[in-house]
């Protein structure tokens, strides 16, 4: 769990060298950041443990480099081709506190991590993109403390998730993206009472007929004290800063010393209290839970996601939207995600019409999900099965690692209303017995962890096969996700014939910018949209990829990049960006007439149409902006049109018009001739 919303007692604590921390927000007021300057060394010969590099006194410690954490050593020109173990060391000051627990948090480290504090082994973790933590209360001391961490990024051998395949194919040891290594996300300490909340799960489900909503919570807390306890629990719901009176009831049981407890509760919001979360009206509530001396809070949204008659429904309305696959990769940063980059990517994706994302094959920084909650975006989040082979999917160790990573991912993300589905993998051999078993078993496991979401996986084997629906693992999903790169019309019709009741997301489609040229890439978008619009069972199409990314996979250009993006590595626009924005805008605009008047006072009439095919969703609260004039557009349902009169002053030959969403992002912009 990410503890970003936890509220702690304010305790005066000293620490040293927190460094450049502002661009990586930890959203907890009393967290103690351990970012900034660390000492760093490569360990290609695996001498660190035997040489006791985790000890306070290490021979030739002056040979360590200085780096800034969060840190991706693969993005450093000195180490960019290195695969293996690297060490990080940081000294920080500490003043002991009594009657509290101190937790050491890693938001993510790629890939295998071992941790020591003050010469003692704390623990280890496997998995590159999910958070983990350790109770270090008993290892801290008054004064200077040494934290040592080894991180190994070797996922180019079979056995890791994600990792290399074991099929013996030529030039196929690499996953499709770079194995960026290091302490890639924030590291910090939190101070907890002896009875503290480990996680809070919120499920807010509306009754679309009555207008009410049921609010269910699960609180997992740990009793680290020396006696059994039955903590008092209180709940407070707010919306726009005002308390929403909700009677939430749950039963608190006695929890033995040193044990974990779970409390479930339930309450009902009246119709007057319910404001649904939607793409253009992303209403967010906040729930604060107090458990004894501890308190946690989390945002949540009230929304209902369903699959009906080969359609995806959000709050009872069919929705068909565009999407994109974002790869966590930026020049000079690698897989490090400062907030400014996440904000930039989110804005560019929203304004490109990318509203329905499968965010590649691992979970990115949680801040992206925060923005999706706040500004409206639908997300499928995916754990690391990237093209696992049948032998790997049958392997108990691989299955255990996947379950662990999925649980960490789900427990971090399950309060985000933007997360509507989980994927259990990408492009594995789903027609084999192993692929069928994996899909069935992992979805069953995942539903036990979080039964409130839809489930899918991205298949590449429905393009021509199978002949019967029971011959492929998509029989087990709530909606089909297909990675299709050619012959789209025939493929999509074939899939619909196999699974007529299931909606289809084209989870990957696209063409590289260097397939011919950038104009060809842009034209590909417009051409394929014609096919998508003919097929009402297509509920989304997610372009591969939003951005170019580095890779060692075969077919990568000699500069190290795969140019699939509608933006380049530095987020510079390609021609495809503007075409994607126009094609995926829910509203179109066309000139009806232009009437000239005296003294440069004219009247332009335009027709606004909400697409009735693809993409398709109602618009509400959109605005039209031009030359200092802002007009609020009427609410329109899919297929509806409305003529709008726009006063025009002056003698310009063109008028630039921007239509914006209620969240402030551009939906479409165009120039209209004034003649």
TrEMBL record:
Record keywords: Glycosidase, Hydrolase
Protein name: Beta galactosidase jelly roll domain-containing protein
Record-linked SUPFAM superfamilies: (Trans)glycosidases, beta-Galactosidase/glucuronidase domain, Galactose-binding domain-like
Protein family (similarity comment): Belongs to the glycosyl hydrolase 2 family.
Domain of life: Bacteria
Glycoside hydrolase family 2 immunoglobulin-like beta-sandwich domain residues: 195-303
GO molecular function, one term: hydrolase activity, hydrolyzing O-glycosyl compounds
Pfam family, one: Glyco_hydro_2_C
Domain Glycosyl hydrolases family 2 sugar binding per the UniProt entry, residue ranges: 34-189
PANTHER family: BETA-GALACTOSIDASE, BETA-MANNOSIDASE
InterPro entries, sorted: Beta-gal/glucu_dom_sf, Galactose-bd-like_sf, GH, GH2_Domain-Containing, Glyco_hydro_2, Glyco_hydro_2_cat, Glyco_hydro_2_N, Ig-like_fold
Residue ranges constituting the Glycoside hydrolase family 2 catalytic domain according to the UniProt record: 305-588
Gene Ontology terms describing biological process: carbohydrate metabolic process
